[in-house]
Specification:
The protein is of the alpha/beta class and about 300 residues long. The chain has 2 domains: about 210 residues, P-loop containing nucleotide triphosphate hydrolases (Rossmann fold); about 80 residues, Alpha-Beta Plaits, CATH 3.30.70. The strands form 3 sheets. The protein has a 6-stranded mixed β-sheet, sandwiched between helices. Helix 4 packs antiparallel against helix 5.
C-alpha cells in the first residue's frame, strides 16, 4: 500500500537564475503520492524549469530538492523511478518509433510492452517510420505512449500532447485515467489546455513569475472564487473592500470575479438581487495570473512557447 504520508517530491527555498532572469524564486512545494496534479501557469512562468530541476536535468542556484527522500541529481535509484516526457522530446534521428519502445525497458522497470502495443494501435502510430520522418502529432504520440506505458511512480507530462489533434488528446486523457485507476502513481501534468484536463486534476499548483501562487486541492481551487453579476451600483457596493480578480461590464450591468465567498456573503449577494456563478478552473488561473485568455486554452506557436528558460 502507498504511504500517503511520505512526500514524493519536497522542494524548499528553490531558486534558479539564468543570468539576470530569475526563473524560480524561492519555491517551496510538496507533492504527495497517488494523485494527478496540474502544474499550471503562463508561458515563461517557470513550469518547465521547475520540472527539469526536480528531475535532476538542471541545477538550482540555491534550495533543497528531495525526490523519494533523496537528492535526484545523478541518482540512478531515484531517476529510474521517474518518467519526464516533454514536447519536442529528442531521439536519435536514425531511430524508428519501434526502437524507442524497444529501449524503454532499459530505463523503466515497470514498462508494460502489452500496454504500449495497445497504445500504438490506439494512436495509429507507424512504428517502422524513422523518427525524423514523423509528423508533429506522431512524435507527440511516441512521447505519451512512453509516458503511459512506463508506469513510472513519478511521471511528468510537460505538454507533449499539444501536437495531438483533439481526438487523439481525448484518447490520451481516457487511457491515462483508466490506467491510473488500475495502477495508481503520481502524475504531474503541465498544460495550457486547462479546460480539457480540469476534471482529471486532483491537485492544482499554479506558478507565476517563478513563484508558487496556488497550491491546493482542485476542489478547493474551484471554490476559491465566484463571479457576481448584477446592476453596476449594486455590484460596486457588494465588492467594496473585497479583492476583485476580474471585472467587466456593459451599460448598467457589471460582472466581477471575487475571492471565496462564505455562506453569509452569498446570502448577502442574493438578497441584493445579484447572481452568483461558479468560475471554471481555466478562468480562475487566467484571472489569478492576470493573463490574457489567449495564453491558455490555445496552442502557442513554438517560437514563443515555454522553452529552456521557462
Amino acid at each position: 500500500m502507498t504511504d500517503t504520508a511520505t512526500p514524493v517530491v519536497e522542494v524548499s527555498g528553490l531558486t534558479k537564475r539564468f543570468g539576470d532572469v530569475v526563473a524560480l524564486d524561492d519555491v517551496t512545494l510538496t507533492v504527495r503520492p497517488g494523485a494527478i496534479t496540474g502544474l499550471l501557469g503562463r508561458n515563461g512562468a517557470g513550469k518547465t524549469t521547475l520540472m527539469q530541476t526536480i528531475t535532476g536535468q538542471d541545477f538550482a542556484n540555491s534550495g533543497e530538492i528531495r525526490v523519494f527522500g533523496e537528492h535526484p541529481v545523478e541518482n540512478a535509484k531515484v531517476l529510474s523511478r521517474i518518467s519526464f516526457i516533454k514536447e519536442g522530446q529528442k531521439y536519435p534521428d536514425e531511430f524508428k518509433a519501434k526502437h524507442v519502445f524497444a529501449c524503454a525497458p532499459w530505463f523503466y522497470e515497470n514498462w508494460d510492452a502489452e500496454f504500449a502495443a495497445q497504445l500504438i494501435d490506439d494512436f495509429q502510430l507507424p512504428v517502422n517510420r524513422r523518427i525524423r520522418k514523423l509528423s508533429r502529432g506522431q512524435l507527440s504520440a511516441v512521447g505519451v505512449i512512453v509516458g503511459l506505458a512506463s508506469r513510472a511512480p513519478l511521471t511528468f507530462f510537460d505538454e507533449p500532447y499539444l501536437g495531438l489533434d483533439a481526438v487523439a488528446r481525448q484518447t490520451f486523457y481516457d487511457r491515462l485515467l483508466a490506467d491510473y485507476g488500475e495502477h495508481p502513481r503520481t502524475i504531474i501534468l503541465s498544460t495550457h489546455l486547462i479546460d480539457e484536463v480540469a476534471n482529471m486534476l486532483e491537485h492544482v499548483v499554479v506558478i507565476d513569475r517563478g513563484r508558487i501562487i496556488m497550491d491546493e486541492s482542485a476542489d478547493s481551487a474551484r471554490e476559491s472564487a465566484t463571479t457576481v453579476v448584477g446592476p453596476r451600483g449594486a455590484i460596486d457596493a457588494f465588492v467594496a473592500g473585497r479583492r476583485v480578480l476580474h471585472r467587466e461590464g456593459i451599460g448598467g450591468l457589471a460582472s466581477v470575479t471575487v475571492e471565496r465567498l462564505d455562506a453569509d456573503e452569498r446570502r448577502e449577494a442574493l438578497a441584493a438581487g445579484l447572481e452568483l456563478a461558479p468560475v471554471s478552473l481555466q478562468q480562475l488561473i487566467v484571472r489569478t495570473t492576470n493573463s490574457a485568455t489567449t495564453d491558455f486554452g490555445a496552442e502557442e506557436p513554438s517560437s514563443i512557447k515555454e522553452g529552456t528558460r521557462s
